[in-house]
Amino acid sequence: MKPIRMIALAASVSCIAQVPAPQTPAPPPLTPTAQGPVFEAPPVSNVVQRNIDAYNAHDARALAETFTPDAQFIQHPGILIYDGKEAIYKGYADSFRKNKNAHCQVLHRSLLGARIVDEAEFTGLGKLPVKGIIIYELRNGLIANIWAIPPE
């Protein structure tokens, strides 16, 4: 009887092996960077990444093109820094002339519907790095508003 049981067991295992396993979605592909692999960003955050890339390239025009015409840059607690895309362009062009080594590194990014929240570290603006929280509100694929929350 033992040989028959073994054959029955082998047949059962063979049938089980032919049943496809339930499929689970694959994680997003990894993209290598200078800091190591990171998850590929969802399309909604691409405009924000273009904004950061333009900042780091000191390209005020490309940075301004990531904003809606009526965009506002507001520093917490409610201080309007730039009002409109052209003011954003002029402000950043001036800042890049004064801060030749300005650089932003995103430490953490969260997606909340039409808002993206970055924890970032800025260097080249003084002697020490400055960390802050940047909240981007998106509209029609562009940045409509930015709220910057600096350290105390």
Mean pLDDT: 80
Strand order of the largest sheet: 4-3-8-7-6-5
Largest sheet features: 6 strands, mixed
List how many beta strands DSSP finds. Answer: 8
CATH architecture: Roll
- Sequence stretches where pLDDT stays below 50 over 5 or more residues: 1-22, 24-41
CATH fold descriptor: Nuclear Transport Factor 2, Chain: A
Helicity range: 25-40%
Estimate nothing, just give the exact number of structural domains. 1
Number of helical stretches of at least 4 residues: 4
The percent range for strand residues is 35-45%
Secondary-structure content class:
alpha+beta
How far apart are the first and last residues' alpha carbons, in Å?
80 Å
Q: What would the principal axes of the Cα set say about the shape?
A: globular
Label this structure with key terms:
Nuclear Transport Factor 2, Chain: A; 31% helix; 152 residues
Polypeptide structure, described:
Residues 1-22 and 24-41 have low confidence and may be disordered. This protein is 31% helix and 36% strand. The radius of gyration is 25 Å and the shape is globular. The protein contains 4 helices and 8 strands; from the N terminus they run αββααββαββββ. The strands form 2 sheets. It has a 6-stranded mixed beta sheet with strand order 4-3-8-7-6-5. It has one domain: Roll (Nuclear Transport Factor 2, Chain: A). By secondary structure, it is of the alpha+beta class. A hairpin with a 6-residue loop joins strand 1 and strand 2 (38-39). It starts with a helix and ends with a strand.
